[in-house]
Amino acid sequence: MFIGSTDHSDQATGSEGRQDGSTRPPGRRAHVVESVGCPAVTARAKEPPETRDGVELTNLDKPLVDGEETTKRDLIDYLDAVADRLVPVLSGRPLSVIRVRPGQPPFMQKNVPKYTPEWVRTTAVWAEASRREVHYALCDDRRTLLWFANQRAVEYHPTLIPDGSTRPSHLVLDLDPPAGAGFDVVVDTARLVQRALADAGLCGAVKTSGAKGLHIFVPLDERVGAEDAAAATRALAARAARLDPAVATTAYVIEDREGKVFVDSTRSGGATVVAAYSPRVRTGIPVSFPLAWDQLAGVTPADFTIRNAAALLGDSDPWRELMPPAQTLPDDLLEQGRAIPIARVAAMHAGKRRARARRQ
Do 170-347 and 53-158 fall under one CATH topology? Predict the structure, then answer.
């Protein structure tokens, strides 16, 4: 059997694997079952698994997510169809994936499992928060993507900083609408960000998050360090919110957002962002889909799913085609951003102040 090809999501349910992690070999020989007074019965031979690029694909017609008609085959077919566009987005970046096992909630996987094939490239990254080394996969080719798909990996979240570098390749603003809001307010906020970028002499590319919002990416040249990228992200978020404070906010705490769209400036440094073309574990299995700025009106993230996204793309690669050239960051933007507290830190201090006030 091809090493690492088993769908290890089934080991948790016992449908194909044994407790020791071994599996039945494919295509077992037909055998004869005999009992007293009964004629011999010949069992049907198990059909060999489907193979693509040397990866054995198993349980393809099982539902991908509980309550969804989408199957694992649908996931694999979609990822295979867009592999030439998705793999370049993932390549050379430590990768986290969100997997789904039958009957279990989705979970994020960072460390590669022990049964990962030797040909899957990995990289070790020190995690300061957990004080340990994390071994991430690097999805550099179609074969690795298909292996992940067979593990029921639905979402693909690469880091903003490529492997071996200390500098982010992009600056990212994540637009998150309040509960119950229409997508039109997210589009209105995206226009504010677009104006803030233009005022700073910058431009970016936009894609649906695949959930409720939008992601705006600004490619950075190699001179921009992680701290400067984070400062510029904070400044741009603040400038966009000031353009229309009735629509947008930079308030990190949900209770402080007052029903406005959150312009999230925290996707920086070692953060991950769901990749363009990646599916999401949501109703209908939507896809994070790139759009031109003039295409935002009249669409919603749910319009793009693993069932129609490949056909909508055809042979095009809009994420590559619409991405501006790498840019440097103006000094005034950096100066403003350095004076803005990091959102998570500011929220933590505000929370402590509120707790003290309640105790008094």
Answer: yes
Instruction: Kindly give the interhelix angle for 83-90 and 142-150, rounded to the nearest 10 degrees.
Output: 90
Per-residue pLDDT tens for 15-64? Answer: 333 333 333 333 333 333 333 344 444 455 566 779 999 999 999 999 99
Q: Which residues of the chain have pLDDT under 50?
A: 1-7, 9-42, 349, 352
User: CA-to-CA distance for 318 and 206, rounded, in angstroms?
Assistant: 10
Contacting residues for 23 by C-beta, under 8 A, at least 6 apart: 1, 6, 16, 17
Spatial distance between the Cα atoms of 234 and 266, rounded to a whole number of angstroms? 8
pTM (two decimals):
0.84
The residue written with tokens 């079952």 in the block is: 33
CA–CA distance, 305 with 14 (Å, rounded to integer)? 30
Q: 98: Cβ–Cβ under 8 A, 6 or more apart, which residues?
A: 106, 107, 108, 109, 153, 154, 155, 157, 281
CATH code of the domain made up of 53-158: 3.90.920.10
- For the chain, what percent of residues have pLDDT higher than 70? 82
- Write down the domain spans for the chain: 53-158, 170-347
Predicted confidence (pLDDT) per residue in 228-253, tens digit: 999 999 999 999 999 999 999 999 99
Residue 151 CA to residue 331 CA, distance in Å, equals: 46
Q: Give the Cβ contact number of residue 103 at 10 Å.
A: 8
Distances (CA, A) of 156 to 140, 234, 275: 13, 25, 6
